[in-house]
Amino acid sequence: MRLIHLPSALLALLSLPLLTPATHTSNWAVLVSTSRFWFNYRHLANVLSLYRTVKRLGIPDNQIILMLPDDMACNPRNSFPGSVFNDKSRGLDLYDDKSGALGGDDNLDMGGIEVDYRGNEVTVENFIRLLTDRWPASHPHSKRLMTGPQSNILIYMTGHGGNEFLKFQDSEEISSFDLADAFEQMYEKKRYHEMLFMIDTCQANTMYSAFYSPGIIATGSSAKDQSSYSHHADQDVGVAVIDRWTYFYLEFLESRLNSTSSDVRLGELFDYQTFDRVHSDAGVRYDLIAGGEHAARDKRVLDFFGNVQGVEIEPGLRAAPEDWKKDLEALQKILESTQEKLDVLSGVDDAAASLHAKGAEATAATASNGQAVSRTALDMAHQGDKWLKKVAGAASLLVLSGVWLASSAWTKRAASA
């Protein structure tokens, strides 16, 4: 009978320390343009450019919330109907990108956009409801931010603003205090793990001055009393096609993040926004993140801009490191007990086989029932280690029963003779 050995690879695996669970298991993006009218073409191009980038880096459409108050692609002033561009070269159609991913993979069609909130749906109320998930039961899940305590969220906003406010479609405003309170509700409801808040507008840095909830990194395009500038215009389109701050963010992301495994850090991304590039004082707030500036700058860019596929471990199922030792000890006892049973079974197997060989003719007529049971047990015993591992206990009982029945029959026959 062969000894059952636990594979050494499995023992090595079980002896490893408990793996640390992923800090977050999903990435979401909320991309918001707050401006309508043709002369704000660049704000829609800002959002669609970032939409294309996070989609290229792996965040799926069902984890991107896109809010567009106007449809520049179908505006009668558009010289290129159905298209939106962020560069005067017009090499990339943001509205229907079929150029493939960065790196020349023409087989990857990123074409089309999925707009979740359009036109008059883009309001301050709907934006705050989206963040806090205060919707009626009938609101479709596809238009909700279905995040949890292990979700990282990227929030990008662009439009016209001022000191501690951002205009929505020239009809209403959201203040930095409205945003701060909405983020606090999200924190209390455990709707995020960490958040990266980005805003491109005049006096953008004042929009995150009121934040007080943990786990937020905030960055803006301009300081108080500073404007946020466009990068360049397209003479054929007739208006500016992208803002400077967003343009250089995209330049960095498109040139440095060539794959979903890039190990670029947030500090490098923030440092790229120099005054010479954006013509204003871009700002970053680190104090709300655990570990402060050093920890925030050391986080991977893909922790917010890319997809993540982690395994979420329920807190109640997590084992302490010392539990592995107990499990290994218990496993060893099981192995020793199993080996003892198999040794006994091997001896019984040999005895039964010998008895069967010597008394087969004598028990043919009078011990047919017992012989059938014995043969059944012996056949099961000879099927190999697979059956022995699974039914060792049952086989032992059957063999012993067969031997007892055969012995009883032989005794009765001898007595009658």
From TrEMBL:
GO biological process terms on file: attachment of GPI anchor to protein; GPI anchor biosynthetic process; proteolysis
Pfam families: Peptidase_C13
Keywords of this entry: GPI-anchor biosynthesis, Signal
Pathway of action: Glycolipid biosynthesis; glycosylphosphatidylinositol-anchor biosynthesis
GO molecular function: GPI-anchor transamidase activity
Keyword Signal: yes
Signal peptide from the UniProt entry: 1-25
Keyword Signal assigned: yes
GO CC annotations, alphabetized: GPI-anchor transamidase complex
Family statement: Belongs to the peptidase C13 family.
Protein name: Peptidase C13 family-domain-containing protein
UniProt source species: Neohortaea acidophila
